[in-house]
Every structure is written in structure tokens, then in C-alpha cells.
Q: What sequence folds into this?
């Protein structure tokens, strides 16, 4: 039975960074991922990574922008850590080989991004996430003797020992179908967000909230789950992401009348206001009949403002996306976009070392809520979050491992239970309920209809009912694949159960927060209410469902102010 | 602008299925899906999975040609399922009945349905090229200061998503499974072209000395065609050769470099290849006297059987092969003009779409009008060597 000091679940940026940091600190490390690491969704991060590295910049300015962007719900101590450590982290990436684009002096070039007071986003064309992810994987290959990689292993649950501390996971080798207990002194969840709860979403098919649900079921609290980011520029056609880097390079938004409407909503920052502000502005334009396209449900993103040569060099991926997925040459004509689900600010509650309140369990990246993004994440802060807190979690977990014995959770009965649960899904009679895929589709549509840019009591209540019903139905939902080797079908059924837990937490928290802040805009409570709601909402699993709680927001140097862009 | 609604159409998908647990041979499985024509083959397969048969095995994740999971063969051609439109796939259908055939990639063992074992082939080859940066010392406190163009240049190989489409149909690999191959050699260029790497020369020597290395590519262009990200793997292999051979003077034991030099000299002098001279010059020395070198005679002797076979199968006309092709003097002059033009450039032009971007017709004129310098990566002799400042 494999035993490690640090076991990392998920091999995107947070997971790989954690693995490298823990190995560097001398720990024995294993990293588990349900897909090959370079397929992780971090690969899709396009625009860049924020760090105050230019001479005119200061990390405090970055921190202030982040606090303001979060609509004052971010914890300022954690934000200070993230922003002050950002330059070092970016330099580290540069040293291990990330091919950051340079300016004419040969130093790191920086581009403008939303909600930032000045240019502070380092980038590799518009494949920054891919470039960083692949370079981290190069480093994992380099350390193949120190870091065990379990690629295409699917985690079904966390293992707890008798004291209630996390002591490993149960995982299924996707290739063989074998179920195994992986024991560890510490587990770091780095398995990403839950975008597939929505349809459409910019997120990959693998982003199904696994880690959030696993931690929740093991008793760890979730936080800020109501805060779901809608990205202002996603393809009307199919929800794919068009990077904010486009607007950073000079692209603008236009309504059906050709008006640059952001002048009305954010007279100073215009198209580069924070994402919640821009998405709401677009949604308002669409609701008021100024949407563009065949059914007036889109907005024009005009990238022809950017010099063509620059677009081809620095925004090549979205040139491809426009051409291949919308039939539009973005260097010649505007493209139709709309707000689309992109990121969840919430997740498993952690401290600034990535430690969750559950002993032995850490979380980093989108699965976690530190909370550095609060009500709304700034573009190019997510890569930073994954790397800074991935590293901190890796280092902290490695240090903690030194002072403790290897836990001895009882595994045989758990393995048998998990195997039985999987067999039960496989054995469900066809036609005895709904297809897993049908339930997933209804979930996505429901969330996108009622738990989106604008929300109200009635819609949220309706969403809660639907999610509750879907949870019931999912217990009888059937699949087709009866095999063991690469049975993706049965994993899909488990993923659905993870997604439903995440959806429920999101709806419950959105119902609870009776104010508008960041990504949560309640049309029935349209104002921010610092008096009552300058607090995090937490959710823990209770015997009868989600239990709501509160946690204070940490304020260090920036008092809440009215938020204008 | 893509505003109009396109009505859904029916598409017939014929999927190559293989169930490793059944003990039975692979078989074809057909499904009809309803989607708009500009939707991807992946969306078609996902619809078939969702509606009819969830057991269809395919790796997929991002749907946007960035994660590299869904490499398959569509109507016999390698590519990403998410990156191929249904209507295009239908019109390229081989049987003529408009059925879209989807098979697993080649050159790699199939695990289930459309899922292949990339670890056994692709990733093993990636490991072979020491795929990590070996830092030039001293590592600066802040970033390495490097030429702006050098980072944009390596971005083309950095853009490789490791999907395996190029490996799938690599002809050299089909004959020679040990060939390091297009993906891994592109990865190698990512370090050779990176001015921060300390071991460019060692990397090049290693890849030139390996009989399965840079000289094992046969220029078939299959990988260039297959690559969904314009990485141009064969182009990267050729760049590795140019930097190793021309710039760094690295000789390889298999005469790859000399063969290439002999070839280009012959084309310059005769306007076309001169088959009888080629072998002699590659082994004996790149001049008319090369054929008198003992090494040339040895090689000639050992090749006699191949030559005889080629003549008997009429692949070679002995008269033309011995005397050389004759082309009109005007044409020969044109060939020489091309050589002169290329050789008189102070720097070598390397086609890199990230830098030039001029892949469409009509654009090259515009690019030239805007920028008098040809829009391509320019590198001083010696590749990226020596351009680092601390």
C-alpha cells in the first residue's frame, strides 16, 4: 500500500506547484490526477499572471486592486501574502523555463488586465496557463525519482483515521479499474473548480467539483460558494473563453447600436473594469434589447482595434478559436460574445498556508477559498493564486509531515464499501431511472438560468427545488458501460454526485446572502450591505443537508468604500 | 459574421470500438447525431455518448483544442476531434457516403475504443530529449534578459499541446518505432532555441549522434499537416539540423549532415538532384572527387543491391541517374538566383507563425508593405547561443 508524506490530488498548476515545493522541502510526494497532468484545466488559462514587477508598481497597489475587485469580501491578510509573493513566484517560473514574452529591453513584458491600476500581467502570448503548466510538468519529469505520478487515477473519497484527521484517499486506477487506498501524512486537494455545474461554461468537461464535494463530505467547511464568476467574453456559439487579454490589448465592447456602452457603466476603466461589473453591464444591455446577433443575446467584441500583427503574435489562440469555433476572423470583424460561467471564487475554506480546518487536509487553487478573491476575482489573479498557495501548501504540508507518524486508517472495509458503491452504479437497470447525462444537462441549464449574473429569491428557490429533485434522481440514474477498463461512464456518475453537492452549496449560500456584492447580484436586494453582510458564508455538511455559518472578513489596511471603475 | 442560425443536420458517425475485456477484435459502431454542421466531431461523439451509448471511450476535456486529449483519426487523418467540424469531416469522408469514420490514433497501442497508450510511446519519447531547462549560470536574481524575438520564437514549440496527432501518422516512426519523432524533437527545439539553456550544443550533439534522432526524419510533411496548433514539427527538426550542422558544425556518425550538404550543392549545380553523385559525395566528400574516396566506394558496394532493385522497379532511370538531369539553362539560372538570394541574407529566415502570422493569401503583401524586413524569425548564426545577458 503506497504511503507518502504528501499526497496531492489534482495536477493542474496548484497541484504541480505543491508537488514541486513539497519535494524541494524533502518530503516523499505522490501526485494523483484523473487525467494526464497536462490535460488539467489550468491549461486553458489564457491571458497571464499578475505581479507587481515593474518599477512603477508596488505590491500594495496590486493588493488594493484585488481587495477592491473582491468587493471587500477578500481576506486582506491573505491578499497581502499573495501580492507580495507574486514577483518572486513569477521570477521562479521564469527561471525554470516559462517563455514569458519580453519587451524591447529583453525584460518581462506586461499587459493591461481588468480591474488593475496599471499594466502588471506577465504573459506567454495567450497560452500563459498552458506554458506554465507544461513547464511545471517538465520539472516533474525532471524529478521523476522524487515525485510519484499516478496519472489517470480517480479519487472517490478522502480517508480519515480514528482521530478524524485526513490520512489519504481511496482512488480508482482508471486504466485497470483497480481500487486502492493511498495513505499519506497530509493530503492536498488541488482538483480545481466546479464549472460543469453550469451549462454553458468556459470550463473543461473534467471540472466537476470533485475536491470540493470530497472535502465537504469529509466534514470540511466550504466558503463563499455563492460567488460564481461570469466572464464577460465567452463565445455565444458554445461558451468557449475569449481571453480578457483581448481587451487588455485594446479590444472594445459594442452593443447592437454600435455604442461603446461601457462608457456609461465604468467611465474610467471602461472595458477593463472588473469582470462582475462588465458582465452585469453586458447582461443589462441584452435585457434592455440592445443585444447583438440573431436573437439579440450577444455583445460585439471588436478586436480589430488591436493592430493585426500584434493580434497574431499575442492573441493567436483566440484567432484560432474565432476561426475554428465561430467562423470569424477576429482580426477583420467583431465577434459575438456574452457573459458565461467561468470561475468559482468559493471552495474549501483554508488559512493562508492552505490548511483546512480538517487536520491533515490542505487545499489550493480553485478548489480552495483562502479567500483572496472574495466576491469577484480579478483576471490573471487565478494563476497567481494557484502558484502562491500551491507552493505554500506544499511547503507547509512537508513541514508538518516531519513531526508525525504515518497514519494508520482502517482501509479494508472502506475499500469494500467503495467497490460496492461503484458496482451498484454499474448494475443499475437501464431505463430504471434517467440517464446521468440528462440529469447533468438539466442541472447546467437550471444553474445558468437562476444562479447567474442576476439572481432573486424566487429563481434561487426554484433552483434549490430542482437540485434537490436531481439529487434524488441521481441515486437511480443509470449508465451503459459495464466494464472496468477505462469505464468513464461510471466515473461520470460519481462526478454528477460531486456536482450536485457543489450546486446545492452554491444555491443555499446565494439564498442566504441577502445583498448584492461582487458576483452575487440580487435584484431583490440590489445594494451592498456592509452592516449585515461584510462576512463570509460557510457551509458544512449536516445530517439533514447543508448547515450555514459565518466567518469574519479580515481587514488590514483597506476599509470598504464604494466601488467605482 | 456568424449570426445566422444554422439548422441541425444529421451526421453519421462510424466509430472504431475495441473492448479489451471482451476478448474480441475491434469493430465498427455507427450512430446518427443531430447537430449544426459547424459543431465539432467531438460534440457529435459526446452526443452519441449522452444519448445512445455512454460506454464509448474517448479522452476529452477542454473542447477548445488546448488540452490535447482528443487526438484521433478522422477519415484516416490524424487530428483533434474537437477541432474538426462535422460538415468538413463529412465532406472528407472516404467511402463517399458521407459517413464520418473515427479511429484511434496510430503508432500507439489502443487501450479501449478511441483511447491509446500515450505513455508507452509519446511520453517515453518526450522523456528521451531531457525535457527540462538546464539553466545557464549564474541564474540572475530577476529574469534572464533575452532578445524579445527569442521568446516569441520558442512560443511556437511551447504551443505544442502534446496531443500525439503528429506521432500518430509519422511515417519514419512506422518503419522505425524507435525514432524520437516529431513531438519530442519539437520539444527539443524548445530548449535549443531557448537562450536561457546552458546545454544547447550538448543537446544537439546528442540528437545528431542518435541514429533515431534528427537525421531519421524523412521530410514527409505528415506531422506538419497533422498538427492542430501550427507547431510545424518537421520545421523544428529541420531547424535543429541547420543549427547543428551549418551553425555549429556538428558532424554525425550517420552522415546526415554531409548528405544534406551534398544534396543542396547538387541542386545548386545541376538544378535537380544528381542521384549518382549524391551517395558518393555524402560519404566521400562534397565535390566531384568525392567518388574516389574509399568510404564512397564502400558505401556504393553495400548499396548495390538497393540500386539494382531500384533500377529493376524502374524507380531510377540509369542513364539520367549517371549523367544527371538536364534542365534548360534559363531554369538553372533561376535556381542559382534562389540560392544567391537566400545565401546573401545576413540572417537566416525561419518560418514562425507566431512572428510572421502571414499564413493567408493576400496577407503577405500587406505584411511586406508594413514591414520591409521579411516577417519571420531571424536568428544570428549559432541559434540562440550567446544572446543572453545577465
A:
Amino acid at each position: 500500500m503506497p504511503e507518502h508524506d504528501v499526497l496531492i490530488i489534482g495536477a493542474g498548476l496548484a497541484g504541480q506547484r505543491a508537488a514541486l515545493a513539497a519535494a524541494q522541502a524533502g518530503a516523499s510526494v505522490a501526485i494523483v490526477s484523473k487525467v494526464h497532468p497536462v490535460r488539467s484545466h489550468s491549461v486553458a488559462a489564457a491571458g497571464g499572471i499578475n505581479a507587481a514587477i515593474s518599477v512603477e508598481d508596488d505590491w500594495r497597489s496590486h493588493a488594493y486592486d484585488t481587495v477592491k475587485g473582491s468587493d471587500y469580501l477578500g481576506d486582506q491578510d491573505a491578499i497581502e501574502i499573495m501580492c507580495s509573493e507574486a514577483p518572486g513566484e513569477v521570477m521562479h517560473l521564469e527561471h525554470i523555463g516559462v517563455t514569458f514574452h519580453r519587451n524591447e529591453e529583453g525584460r518581462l513584458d506586461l499587459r493591461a488586465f481588468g480591474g488593475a491600476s496599471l499594466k502588471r500581467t506577465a504573459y506567454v502570448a495567450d497560452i500563459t496557463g498552458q506554458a506554465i503548466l507544461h513547464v511545471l510538468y517538465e520539472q516533474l519529469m525532471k524529478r521523476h525519482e522524487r515525485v510519484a505520478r499516478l496519472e489517470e487515477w480517480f479519487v472517490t473519497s478522502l480517508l480519515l483515521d480514528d482521530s478524524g484527521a485526513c490520512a489519504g484517499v481511496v482512488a480508482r486506477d482508471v486504466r485497470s479499474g483497480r481500487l486502492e487506498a493511498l495513505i499519506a501524512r497530509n493530503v492536498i486537494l488541488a482538483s480545481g473548480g466546479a464549472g460543469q455545474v453550469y451549462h454553458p461554461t468556459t470550463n473543461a468537461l473534467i471540472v466537476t467539483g470533485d475536491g470540493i464535494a470530497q472535502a465537504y463530505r469529509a466534514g470540511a467547511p466550504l466558503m463563499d460558494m455563492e460567488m460564481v464568476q461570469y466572464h464577460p467574453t465567452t463565445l455565444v456559439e458554445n461558451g468557449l473563453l475569449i481571453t480578457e487579454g483581448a481587451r487588455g490589448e485594446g479590444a472594445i465592447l459594442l452593443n447592437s447600436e454600435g455604442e461603446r456602452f461601457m462608457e456609461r457603466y465604468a467611465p474610467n476603466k471602461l472595458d477593463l473594469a472588473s469582470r462582475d461589473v462588465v458582465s452585469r453591464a453586458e447582461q443589462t444591455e441584452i435585457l434592455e434589447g440592445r443585444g447583438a446577433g440573431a436573437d439579440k443575446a450577444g455583445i460585439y467584441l471588436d478586436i480589430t482595434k488591436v493592430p493585426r500583427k500584434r493580434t497574431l503574435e499575442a492573441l493567436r489562440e483566440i484567432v484560432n478559436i474565432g476561426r475554428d469555433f465561430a467562423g470569424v476572423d477576429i482580426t477583420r470583424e467583431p465577434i459575438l460574445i456574452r457573459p458565461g460561467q467561468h470561475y468559482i471564487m468559493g471552495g474549501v475554506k483554508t488559512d493562508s498556508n492552505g490548511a483546512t480546518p480538517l487536520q491533515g487536509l490542505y487545499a489550493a487553487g480553485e478548489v480552495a477559498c483562502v479567500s483572496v478573491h472574495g466576491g469577484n476575482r480579478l483576471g490573471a489573479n487565478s494563476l497567481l493564486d494557484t502558484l502562491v498557495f500551491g507552493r505554500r501548501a506544499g511547503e507547509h504540508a512537508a513541514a508538518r509531515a516531519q513531526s508525525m507518524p504515518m497514519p494508520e486508517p482502517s482501509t479494508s472495509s472502506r475499500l469494500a464499501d467503495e467497490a460496492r458503491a461503484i458496482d451498484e452504479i454499474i448494475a443499475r437497470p437501464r431505463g430504471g431511472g434517467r440517464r446521468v447525462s440528462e440529469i447533468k444537462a438539466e442541472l447546467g441549464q437550471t444553474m445558468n438560468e437562476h444562479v447567474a449574473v442576476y439572481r432573486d429569491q424566487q429563481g434561487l428557490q426554484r433552483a434549490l427545488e430542482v437540485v434537490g429533485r436531481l439529487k434524488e434522481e441521481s441515486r437511480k440514474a443509470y449508465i451503459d458501460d459495464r466494464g472496468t477498463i477505462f469505464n468513464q461512464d461510471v466515473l461520470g456518475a460519481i462526478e454528477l454526485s460531486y456536482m450536485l453537492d457543489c450546486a446545492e452549496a452554491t444555491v443555499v449560500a446565494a439564498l442566504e446572502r441577502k445583498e448584492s456584492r461582487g458576483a452575487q447580484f440580487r435584484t431583490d436586494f440590489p445594494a451592498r450591505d456592509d452592516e449585515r453582510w461584510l462576512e463570509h458564508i460557510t457551509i458544512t455538511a449536516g445530517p439533514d443537508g447543508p448547515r450555514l455559518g459565518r466567518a469574519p472578513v479580515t481587514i488590514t489596511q483597506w476599509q470598504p468604500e464604494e466601488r467605482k471603475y | 459574421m456568424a449570426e445566422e442560425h444554422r439548422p441541425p443536420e444529421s451526421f453519421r458517425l462510424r466509430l472504431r470500438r475495441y473492448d479489451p475485456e471482451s476478448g474480441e477484435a475491434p469493430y465498427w459502431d455507427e450512430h446518427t447525431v443531430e447537430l449544426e454542421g459547424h459543431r465539432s466531431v467531438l460534440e457529435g461523439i459526446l452526443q452519441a455518448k449522452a444519448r445512445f451509448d455512454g460506454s464509448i471511450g474517448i479522452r476529452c476535456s477542454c473542447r477548445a483544442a488546448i488540452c490535447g486529449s482528443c487526438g484521433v483519426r478522422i477519415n484516416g487523418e490524424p487530428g483533434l476531434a474537437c477541432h474538426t467540424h462535422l460538415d468538413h469531416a463529412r465532406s472528407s469522408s472516404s467511402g463517399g457516403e458521407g459517413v464520418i469514420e473515427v479511429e484511434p490514433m496510430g503508432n500507439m497501442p489502443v487501450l479501449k475504443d478511441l483511447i491509446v497508450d500515450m505513455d508507452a510511446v509519446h511520453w517515453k519519447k518526450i522523456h528521451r530529449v531531457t525535457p527540462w531547462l538546464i539553466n545557464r549560470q549564474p541564474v540572475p536574481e530577476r529574469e534572464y534578459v533575452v532578445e524579445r524575438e527569442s521568446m516569441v520564437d520558442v512560443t511556437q514549440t511551447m504551443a505544442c499541446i502534446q496531443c500525439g496527432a503528429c506521432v500518430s501518422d509519422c511515417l519514419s516512426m512506422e518503419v522505425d518505432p524507435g525514432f524520437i519523432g516529431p513531438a519530442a524533437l519539437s520539444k527539443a527545439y524548445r530548449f535549443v532555441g531557448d537562450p536561457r539553456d546552458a546545454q544547447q550544443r550538448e543537446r544537439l550533439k546528442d540528437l545528431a549522434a542518435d541514429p533515431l534522432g534528427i537525421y531519421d526524419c524523412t521530410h514527409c510533411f505528415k506531422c506538419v499537416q497533422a498538427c492542430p496548433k501550427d507547431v510545424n514539427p518537421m520545421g523544428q527538426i529541420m531547424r535543429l539540423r541547420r543549427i547543428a550542422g551549418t551553425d555549429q558544425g556538428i558532424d554525425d556518425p550517420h552522415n546526415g549532415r554531409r548528405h544534406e550538404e551534398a544534396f543542396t550543392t547538387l541542386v545548386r549545380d545541376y538544378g535537380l538532384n544528381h542521384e549518382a553523385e549524391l551517395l558518393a559525395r555524402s560519404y566521400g566528400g562534397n565535390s566531384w572527387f568525392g567518388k574516389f574516396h574509399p568510404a564512397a566506394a564502400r558505401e556504393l558496394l553495400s548499396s548495390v543491391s538497393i540500386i539494382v532493385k531500384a533500377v529493376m522497379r524502374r524507380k531510377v532511370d540509369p542513364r539520367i541517374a549517371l549523367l544527371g538531369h538536364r534542365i534548360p539553362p534559363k531554369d538553372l539560372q533561376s535556381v542559382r538566383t534562389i540560392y544567391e538570394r537566400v545565401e546573401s541574407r545576413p540572417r537566416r529566415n525561419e518560418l514562425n507563425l507566431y512572428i510572421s502570422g502571414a499564413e493567408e493569401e493576400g496577407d503577405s503583401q500587406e505584411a511586406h508593405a508594413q514591414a520591409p524586413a521579411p516577417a519571420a524569425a531571424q536568428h544570428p548564426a549559432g541559434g540562440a547561443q550567446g544572446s543572453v545577458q545577465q
The radius of gyration of chain B is 24 Å. Strands of chain B lie at 9-17, 27-35, 71-74, 77-80, 99-103, 110-112, 115-116, 348-350, 377-379.
